[in-house]
Design a protein that fits this description.
Layout: H1 2-6, H2 22-37, H3 40-58, H4 70-85, E1 90-95, H5 102-110, E2 115-116, H6 123-126, E3 130-135, H7 150-153, E4 158-166, E5 169-176
Parallel strand pairs: 1-2, 1-3
Antiparallel strand pairs: 3-5, 4-5
Length: about 180
């Protein structure tokens, strides 16, 4: 703590990582002290408190929910994109609240599909004739032709050529408007 107080640059959250164990050590020390110092009533209250903390931590345990199967879904969507691209060069975009293109792009590149990132400094070589947009939000919130997302905006004026439901997601194939 003294070292961090003397540090004159930006202090980021992960710099405090060594302190994350402090509450557990302090709680354990206090629990041990009270356990050894006082009688049966205190021990009973400590155990009730311990089990209450344990219960509160277990009631929303993520293990009781089914997995989201994000990797398997990415594989299925990438396979569909690969099939629909007909081996032709294409661009990729994802409309989502917390996800991005890399998961889909990994499986596309692994399987040898010609996916290209749009480079604003080299548009003629990186913009394809087709753009696949994966929408991970509900269909009413997806409007791939008017999205401000860079991957879609850089593609230019477009129209939806095809649309599919794949793995619970909506997949759009956009082409340039003439």
């Amino acid at each position: 703590i003294l070292g961090l107080s003397l540090y004159k640059q930006h202090i980021y959250d992960h710099y405090f990582g060594f302190m994350f164990t402090a509450p557990f050590i302090l709680f354990g020390g206090l629990f041990g002290y009270l356990w050894n110092k006082f009688g049966l009533l205190t021990k009973t209250l400590l155990l009730i408190g311990l089990f209450a903390c344990l219960y509160l931590n277990l009631i929303e345990n993520p293990l009781k929910y089914p997995p989201n199967r994000q990797m398997q879904r990415s594989q299925v969507v990438a396979q569909k994109i690969g099939e629909e691209s007909n081996g032709k060069k294409f661009n990729l975009a994802v409309i989502a609240e917390r996800n991005y293109e890399d998961g889909y792009q990994y499986f596309l590149e692994k399987d040898g599909y010609p996916v290209y990132d749009i480079d604003p400094l080299n548009l003629s070589d990186t913009i394809a004739d087709q753009l696949f947009v994966v929408c991970e939000m509900e269909a009413s919130k997806c409007d791939p032709t008017h999205s401000a997302k860079a991957e879609i905006a850089n593609f230019g004026w477009s129209k939806i050529e095809a649309q599919w439901e794949v793995g619970g997601l909506t997949l759009y194939k956009l082409i340039h408007s003439k």
